[in-house]
Amino acid sequence: MVRHARRSLRDGARGDSWPPAWVFSELGGGRGHRALCIPLGRPGRPRALLVDGKTREGTGRPGRSGAGGAHALSLGEPRCNPDGDDVVQHAGARPKIALLNAALEVKKTEVSAEIRIRDPAQMQAFLREKENFLKGFVDAIVRTGANVVLCQKGIDDLAQHYLAKAGIYAARRVKESDMKRLAKATGGRIVSKIGEISKDDLGSAKEVYERKIGEDEMTFVTGCKNPRSVSVLLRGGTEHVVDELERSLEDAISVVAVVVEDGGYVYGGGAIEMEVAADLKGYAVSVGGREQLAIEAFANALEIVPRTLAENAGMDPIDTLIDLRSAHKEGKAAQGVNPLEGKVSDMKRLGVLEPLRVPRQAIASATDAAVMVLRIDDAVASKPTRMEEKGKKGDKKEESEPTSDFD
């Protein structure tokens, strides 16, 4: 699978210099960065491998290229309590992450109301009650052992102070889509009522930290155990470069997903078509009759793939097919067209692979088209268009005009 991904990535904008770390990569420093999220599905269920589209766009300034660790998820939101720790990492215990769908703020009343304060003590009591209300929220989080809070809604400034004082990393206004991915990656549950949060609701990771990407501060959650969601961070000099990187990365992940779902791959360069054609010709001899001619015609049709590859590469198609037939007759099933060297080569040695689904679908579609044509009993003439009718009328008019040799 790594070979499939590497070859697909090399076909993209970066070429051979792009590291094949397709799970989490930071590529080039530049003016654009974009994050992709790949839900990997449950352990033992590779068929759930999917690719999500664009999830974030932003701008930045040139930076140092590098590669991040696998099993990471990036968020566009920085921490909201600057007085807290930049990095949450414990040698003895993994960071405990609380995912909140409730605001750490004092709710406004649904009806318009006024409070008349005639004594400074009443004002102090009012502010103290607000502090106790927010501190109660923070204390409920602290009792669970959480040291990271990622909140989908707002966090009051006073609550930020209490969180920083308790040594808790906090980020607010996280997107709903990112919250769902965080739950998949960390194994935590999104809590809607802060007072009901418990230890069982917390997620875990190896490290949670903030990093500056270009001019944007981003939060990274890395080292998740059996994550069902990860992020890929792409950076490039221009938006066009980022788009090309994104396209090649999506192609690479799609190829790997297809290989995982189908459970196999075949050799490219026309090798699989030549092998199937050789098997069909051998089978046709055992059938006999008119059916043998049909099977041989189908086998010859399969050879159009290596023939076309040879013609496009400037090779002699007849000599190429002869060499391929001879090689496959000797049991060399991986022999295919090598356009770079202009000869027949071992596709296994060159690493020319393609998903099993591609030739299977091509053969199935070609067969369906051939069967459909053979089932046609009659042809129905289509009604001429208005332009064709006008053209015919004009021709008749020219023919009807008398001609003369005299002036």
Could you give the topology of this structure?
Elements: H1 2-10, E1 32-39, E2 54-59, E3 73-75, E4 87-88, E5 96-100, H2 120-143, E6 148-151, H3 157-165, E7 169-171, H4 176-186, E8 190-191, E9 203-204, E10 207-213, E11 216-222, E12 229-236, H5 239-262, E13 265-267, H6 271-287, H7 289-302, H8 304-312, H9 317-329, E14 335-338, E15 343-346, H10 347-350, E16 353-355, H11 357-374, H12 386-400
Parallel strand pairs: 5-6, 5-8, 6-7
Antiparallel strand pairs: 1-2, 1-12, 3-11, 4-10, 5-9, 10-11, 13-16, 14-15
Helix pairs in contact: 1-5, 2-3, 6-7, 6-9, 8-9
Q: Indicate the overall shape.
A: elongated
Average predicted confidence as pLDDT: 75
Q: What's the helix count?
A: 12
Give the C-level CATH assignment of the largest domain: Alpha Beta
Helix content: 40-55%
Largest sheet: 5 strands, mixed
What is the CATH topology descriptor of the largest domain?
Answer: GroEL
Number of strand elements: 16
CATH architecture of the largest domain: 3-Layer(bba) Sandwich
Instruction: Find the CATH superfamily of the largest domain.
Output: GroEL
